[in-house]
Amino acid sequence: MALAAAAVTSARPLCHGDATASQARLRAALTGERFVAYEPTSLKVVNGRITAADPASIRADLTVLREKFDALITYDAVHGAQAIPAIAATLKFRSLIIGVWNPADDAELDAAIEAAHRFPHLVAALALGNEMLFSHRSDPRALAALIARARQRLPDTALSTTEPFHIYYEADSAPLLAQLDFLLVNVHPIFQPWFREANDTTAARFVVNVLGRLEPLACGPILVKETGVPSAPAHEGYSEARQASFYRELRRVLPPSDTRAFAYFAAFDAPWPAVDASPVPGVHPEESHWGLYDAERHPKQAARELQPLSGNP
Fold first, then answer.
1. Strand pairing of 71-73 and 158-164?
2. In a domain? residue 63
3. DSSP letters of 21-63?
4. CB count in 10 Å sphere of residue 310
């Protein structure tokens, strides 16, 4: 999660070869589809031990989401997530960005690449790593080299990684930026020191301003993977009403285009990320309440305010 900003690097990176074809598929999705960041409700990580997601629960999750969303961003390609592409295809989701939590894990990377080959009309991109630099699990050059190797196996699929926005401002991120077909970025206003006193217009415009600073550094479009306001705890100033209000403002100031768009974060509440998921030490109770739906798949105000998608199955 992004805690602070740093000085912005001054020059656009020397981008790798021609990514026009892979970017075209993604740009169309950014313009015309509604993304949500999704982890299965049956997936749990407690004290570092993983309980894998089961296909029946994934199908139940995606059936609920399909009324309001037609594009998914995932975090993992194994631990039960192997079932997501096939289920998403049967439910007629239009796009899937497959997250690979650990792209240095050959089995996980192989699973994601196999899914991209099997479902070429569904898989719009791969996200190779989630906050790997922020959590000190890799460095920019090593991650850039890994993405370059993956591109040899998937030359026509857009590739990226996910980091908090301020990581991309740093000068040593240039080799990584040059390898990314698009930016998949986390922009969380709630971690800014001014957030408690700010209104939702200010918070939403902060996201837009960050994208404006990132655009000169990017080799392609920008998709905000994580942003938003959790719906609890109330004593921290969070509520369903404020979550919904933030998204109303963000829709107003950041309408989707082929150069920038945002995903709703996240699909469902999960109790375990409060203590197991964050690279920032300590307990973070808000991490359990990011969902637009609760852990029992009931819609919160932000989800209820979204118009159903036309033509959903």
1. unpaired
2. yes
3. HHHHHHHHHHHH--EEE---TT-EEETTEEEPP-HHHHHHHHH
4. 5
> Quick count: other Cβ atoms within 10 Å of Cβ 7?
9
Report the distance separating Cα 175 and Cα 171, nearest Å.
9
Residue 80 lies in a domain: yes
Domain that residue 277 falls in? 20-304
Q: How far is CA 45 from the centre of its chain?
A: 19
What are the tokens at 44? 């749990």
Number of domains forming the structure of the chain: 1
Quick: pLDDT tens for 144-169. Answer: 999 999 999 999 999 999 999 999 99
204's tokens: 């939403």
The answer to whether residues 32 and 69 touch, using CB atoms and an 8 Å cutoff, is no
List pLDDT tens digits, range 39-83.
Answer: 999 998 888 789 999 999 999 999 999 999 999 999 999 999 999
- Any domain includes 4: no
**CATH code, domain carrying 102:** 3.20.20.80
- Residue 3 in domain: no
Q: Residue 245: what are its φ and ψ, rounded to 5°?
A: -65, -40
